[in-house]
Design a protein that fits this description.
Elements lengths: L34 H26 L13 H5 L7 H26 L3 H26 L4 H28 L3
Helix pairs in contact: 1-3, 1-5, 3-4, 4-5
């Protein structure tokens, strides 16, 4: 015996917004997560992992440069003064790309009306900036332990913030 499909949830009046949704959408539902937002979140999580691995390699394995001897300026990071470590330039470039992508994620979250997830996007951007400041201090200050710690904390906070946003969107919408 076949049962009738369940009736949709009560509609929210157009003056109110369903949790995580648009005005007039059934309560408890949300509009689909835009593909660009899913791709940006997946990309930022992947780039954070790559950035972490490059940073750990530079910190622990690369010996052809010494922290404190590389001023934090573009000619020094991308020129021969970087100690012949092109991975340092790649690491710095990925950091800039991560900041750009974090701003894109915030823009996409705002455009999709995902206000609750927007806080996670802003937290992720701030954490990336914290890690970048730690990295700049690490290069310019001779590799103090606090700078290395700031990079690690910034990475973890950014990863968890974007992971939380990704999971939240998957639970609320079709992300």
């Amino acid at each position: 015996m076949m049962s009738a499909p369940a009736a949709p949830g009560p509609l929210v009046p157009p003056s109110r917004t369903a949790p995580g949704g648009e005005p007039g959408t059934p309560a408890g539902t949300a509009p689909p997560v835009p593909m660009a937002l899913r791709l940006a979140l997946n990309g930022i999580l992947g780039l954070l992992g790559l950035q972490f691995l490059l940073g750990m390699y530079l910190n622990l394995v690369a010996t052809s440069w010494a922290p404190g001897n590389v001023p934090v300026t573009l000619p020094h990071l991308f020129g021969p003064a970087a100690g012949g470590v092109p991975l340092l330039a790649v690491h710095a470039t990925l950091g800039v790309l991560l900041v750009f992508l974090a701003v894109v994620v915030i823009y996409l979250l705002r455009g999709a009306g995902r206000r609750r997830a927007l806080g996670g996007g802003v937290a992720g951007l701030l954490a990336i900036l914290l890690a970048g400041l730690g990295g700049a201090d690490f290069l310019d200050g001779g590799g103090p332990p606090l700078a290395s710690y700031l990079m690690a904390v910034g990475f973890l906070a950014a990863f968890w913030a974007y992971f939380w946003v990704r999971v939240r969107l998957a639970m609320v919408g079709n992300g």
